[in-house]
């Protein structure tokens, strides 16, 4: 039986409405796979994720040729992909050896709509923060924040935002007992445990659900509205009030919508953004029928980026068929059939 991966969205076991009721068809996506990000130097990034955050290298390969150019939408590419694993989850570090894209804007903010991060679960956030300080990471939050108890969905959770060497936002996250997946309470002495979710900033949650829920079949797993000084300092956005919606597939990390109710001056993603730009992210999803998922996108709230389903000849990246799609805010996903 063939399996399929999709970069940048999440899907559920059955097509679900926000209230969790079935919409009548089977989901085309069975799990979320690796979260990919474009990097300027794969060796530097791989060293950072391994040495600082405990990731392990799974593979390191290069691809080139017309099929990958059509898949990624970049002419003349030579692409190096380094997969790094933490626990059961993985990230793909994608270095475009040619052509080079643009760096992340130096004035990027947490509420700009090209924002995306991965949330790395830790067993002890004070120890994890001390390790980050030891390696002199760039802060986004001034310090780890404890979300207040008045918020029943988030109270007691502790979190901290920081950046990797290219400026990609990352989060370390600690769940108290009774919150988050129960597996995060079983760590066997490990400090960095795995990836709980990837978060994307969206302009309008309901509009985004038309892509992720109604077209791709994501299940809405949780909702919260967060505000207050702790949330402001976590995101480093004064006056932040967020509508947060978490979507999940049967397996793999979740996808979390971050809609800023205030402030609303977050900037849209550049219309000319390319996958070789270092601000680019893509999240892997698994499905059994890439062609069916491509058909589902036609006329939907999501759009195709690739000209169709691509069948690269070598299978170097572990898939047989793939295509890229995009949501209304510019976040990219890549469907891959193994």
Please provide a written account of the structure.
Strand 2 and strand 3 form a beta hairpin. The protein is built from six helices and 20 strands. It has 338 residues and is mostly beta strands. It is globular. It is 15% helix and 39% strand. It has a single domain, classed as 2,3-Dihydroxybiphenyl 1,2-Dioxygenase, domain 1 (Roll). The strands form three sheets. Strands 1, 4, 5, 6, 7, 17, 18, 19 and 20 form a nine-stranded mixed beta sheet that branches. Strands 8, 9, 10, 11, 12, 13, 14, 15 and 16 form a nine-stranded mixed beta sheet that branches.
Could you give a short description of this structure?
With 338 residues, the protein is mostly beta strands. It has one domain (4-337): 2,3-Dihydroxybiphenyl 1,2-Dioxygenase, domain 1, CATH 3.10.180. The chain has helices spanning 42-51, 66-72, 125-134, 205-212, 229-235, 290-297, and strands at 4-6, 14-16, 22-26, 29-39, 56-64, 78-86, 89-98, 116-122, 138-139, 145-146, 158-163, 169-174, 192-202, 219-227, 241-248, 254-262, 281-287, 303-304, 321-326, 332-337.
Name given to the CATH architecture: Roll
The dominant shape is globular
Determine the strand fraction and express it as a percent band: 35-45%
CATH class: Alpha Beta
The biggest beta sheet reads: 9 strands, mixed
- Helix amount: 10-25%
- Structural Rg: 19 Å
Helix tally?
Answer: 6
The residue ranges in which pLDDT falls below 50 over 5 or more consecutive positions are 1-25
């Amino acid at each position: 039986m063939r399996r399929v991966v999709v970069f940048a969205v999440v899907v559920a076991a059955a097509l679900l409405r926000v209230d969790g009721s079935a919409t009548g068809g089977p989901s085309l996506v069975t799990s979320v796979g690796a979260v990919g990000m474009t990097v300027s130097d794969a060796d530097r990034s791989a060293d950072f994720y391994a040495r600082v955050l405990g990731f392990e290298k799974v593979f390191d390969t290069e691809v080139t040729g017309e099929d990958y150019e059509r898949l990624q939408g970049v002419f003349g590419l030579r692409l190096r992909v380094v997969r790094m694993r933490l626990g059961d989850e993985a990230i793909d570090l994608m270095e475009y050896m040619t052509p080079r894209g643009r760096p992340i804007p130096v004035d990027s903010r947490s509420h700009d709509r090209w924002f995306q991060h991965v949330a790395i679960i830790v067993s002890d956030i004070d120890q994890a923060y001390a390790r980050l300080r030891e390696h002199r990471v760039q802060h986004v939050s001034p310090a780890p924040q404890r979300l207040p108890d008045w918020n029943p969905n988030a109270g007691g959770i502790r979190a901290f935002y920081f950046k990797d060497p290219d400026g990609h936002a990352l989060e370390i996250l600690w769940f108290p007992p009774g919150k988050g997946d129960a597996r995060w309470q079983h760590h066997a002495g490990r400090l960095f445990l795995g990836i709980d979710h990837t978060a994307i900033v969206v302009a309008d949650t309901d509009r985004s659900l038309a892509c992720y829920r109604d077209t791709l079949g994501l299940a809405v797993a949780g909702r919260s509205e967060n505000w207050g000084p702790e949330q402001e300092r976590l995101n480093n956005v004064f006056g932040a009030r967020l509508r947060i919606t978490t979507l999940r597939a049967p397996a793999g990390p979740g996808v979390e919508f971050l809609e800023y109710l205030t402030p609303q001056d977050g900037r849209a993603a550049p219309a000319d953004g390319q996958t070789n730009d270092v601000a680019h992210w893509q999240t892997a999803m698994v499905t059994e029928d890439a062609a069916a998922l491509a058909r589902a996108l036609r006329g939907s709230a999501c759009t195709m980026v690739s000209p169709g389903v691509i069948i690269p000849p070598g299978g170097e990246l572990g898939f047989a068929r793939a295509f890229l799609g995009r949501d209304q805010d510019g976040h990219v996903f890549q469907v891959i059939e193994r």
